[in-house]
Amino acid sequence: MTTDAIVVGAGFSGIYMTHKLEQLGLSVRGFEAAETVGGTWFWNTYPGARCDVISTEYAFTFSQDLIDEWEWTERYPAQPEILRYIDFVAEKLDVKKHFQFNVRVESAVWDEDTSLWTVGTDSGEYVSAKYLITAAGCLSTSSTPDFAGLDAFEGTTLHTAAWPRDGVDFTGKRVGVIGTGSSGVQVIPKIAEQAAHLTVFQRSPAFSLDCGNRLLTEDEKRMFKELIEDYKVASKASGGGQPVDTLEVNTFDHSEEERAAVFEERWDRHRAIDLIAAYPDLLSNRAANDTIAEFFRGKIRDVVDDPEVAETLSPREHPLGAKRITLDTNYFQTYNRDNVSLVSVKSAPIEGLTPAGLKTAGAEYPLDVVVFATGFDAITGPLMNIDIRGRNGKTLQDKWADGPVTYLGIAVDEFPNLFTITGPGSPNVLTNMVCAIEQHVEWTADAVAHLESVGARTFEADETAAKEWTARAVELADLTLYPEGNSWYTGANIPGKPRVIMSYVGGLNVFRETCDSVAADNYTGFITS
Ligand code: N01
């Protein structure tokens, strides 16, 4: 069977991309591994799962109907509400009909003679298309460390990114949570409320911000809609896809007292970007960063009763923001509970699971349940897990063996007519994802419209353009503190993964202008035939 375009994934990107292709009059087939739309927000149903972007800003802006007809309830939306929103959008755009659900794409092979991609699925179907668009998400391939004894453990193991849909009852259980990133800090307080005892195994402490979540007021909801045009302009002009008021002075232009007042006022805004972007040099000057890092550590000491525990919870290695700042509700307070203990596995790493629990280099912990909050093979994982073969049978795995190389994060040389929405080398996760998705989807739709209008068969990134774009992204990242964080931003969380920043740090606004000028300049850096 042949269709004009195949879309992989039915999260935010997949449903919008499908809508845009349909508007162009193209035939589209979509494949989604889950039973319905939602992407990452379908799978991450662990208790406490909540977005770290304010609800009103974590929504599409391209359609006035969508804006008018949806109302958020909380300032930071919980997973069920976001999933309802994505479902609402998919219904409204009427795109579900293009998707096959419960079907995973396993392979995609480019045919030189026909200039078509043939996609193979786990249901045994093969479908060919002129355009292959991956909307597979940045955080959709979960990662579980390859611990010894995983199979021998007689209790239950869970991963936050593959949570049982009917929930888990921890009452009376001895639970261990491994990982203190965004997922860990959200799930830990919730499990602590139920479990007989919770042991948190922490390798690196997190800089975490109390999200101060609350219901949106009627005024806030009304004002956001009334000022939507201003918001659109401001978010498009911003580097992070969220308007932010960065001061016009650097950190050390302010006295210690002035800085403290700035940080304190922004802490109360409960919005991470307001803190990390308070001064322009916080993410590029380690000494400046140390001032805000120490402010965050002070907040931990204010909350945690036991000074030793507070110190163990205090990040000292990575700069604030080099790993994602986590957003929490009662995270640090949880360590004041009698039924919670913290184990640092930094110097005494986890050796593995035993039939009765977990063993570190220092001790053994009897457990009934082990929760992996150990994150994702991010950004490249979802693409590399598909056997994608471009010209001359070249696999994406080979192509990216030393790290991903893309042009604008959307195209890979030797892989014609492949568009990777929010792929490596685009601003993706360093921005408000929904904004980044809108930009990438709209740019892709315009490119496809152009190709159709000129009757092109193939569209491919030029090798030099891709290499130069990727080198530029690395150069820009090297001017920042991002490379100092051992995180999924750089692939450092996955053993053996090439260590390279996978996001364009130059800002979504600059990126948008670059993409627009590439298009205006007759798609410079692309080879069209
Ligand atoms: O994953 P992570 P996540 N032994 O990679 C630890 C988004 N998200 O699922 O830091 C012991 O951040 C690891 O330790 P270390 C958000 O973008 C958003 O929490 O590598 N520990 C770390 O503590 C986020 O950034 C929201 O030393 C091990 C943890 O596991 C992204 O998803 C909510 C280990 C993994 O943290 C990923 O977050 C949830 C080992 N062998 C997720 N291996 C919101 O919107 C790993 N760890 C709020």
TrEMBL record:
Keywords: FAD, Flavoprotein, Monooxygenase, NADP, Oxidoreductase
Catalytic activity, EC: 1.14.13.-
Pfam (any one): Pyr_redox_3
Top-rank taxon: Bacteria
Cofactor: FAD
GO molecular function, one term: oxidoreductase activity
Family to which this protein belongs: Belongs to the FAD-binding monooxygenase family.
Name of the molecule in the record: NAD(P)/FAD-dependent oxidoreductase
Organism (species): Rhodococcoides yunnanense
